[in-house]
Amino acid sequence: GKADDALVILKESIAMWRKGGSMHRRDVDDENVAEEFQQEFDVTFEFRFETAKLLLELDTTTDLAIQILDELLVERDTVVDVWYML
């Protein structure tokens, strides 16, 4: 249905702006992490957060959404909404 079509398009979008597809960085040193992520992504923190929310609504698995939320936590762990979504 329409939800399946939306999920396909959302994942295509993610593939365009998310380099490497699977970048789980929980083990990265916290120093200079924000700078790394600013160079890594061409989209804002808020855009990635909203994308993760859409994934949680549309996808039957939560793996990709959790990876994106984990990356957001590494970048900025003071945002309560990200913790709430996990």
Task: Summarize the helices and strands and which ones pair or pack.
Layout (H helix, E strand, L loop, with lengths): L1 H16 L15 H8 L4 H14 L4 H13 L4 H6 L1
Verbal overview:
The chain has helices at residues 2-17, 33-40, 45-58, 63-75, 80-85. With 86 residues, it is mainly alpha-helical. Helix 1 (2-17) packs antiparallel against helix 3 and helix 3 runs antiparallel to helix 4. The longest helix has 16 residues, at 2-17. Mean pLDDT is 83; it is low at 21-28.
Summary tags:
86 residues, mainly alpha, 5 helices, 66% helix
Brief write-up:
The chain is mostly helical.
Poorly predicted residue ranges: 21-28
User: Averaging pLDDT over every residue, what do you get?
Assistant: 83
Helix residue percentage: 55-70%
What gap, in angstroms, lies between the N and C termini?
27 Å
The global form is globular
Content of β-strand = under 5%
Radius of gyration, taken over Cα atoms and rounded to an integer in Å: 13 Å
- SS content category: mainly alpha
The largest sheet is:
none
Question: Helical segment tally?
Answer: 5
Number of strands: 0
Order of helices and strands: HHHHH
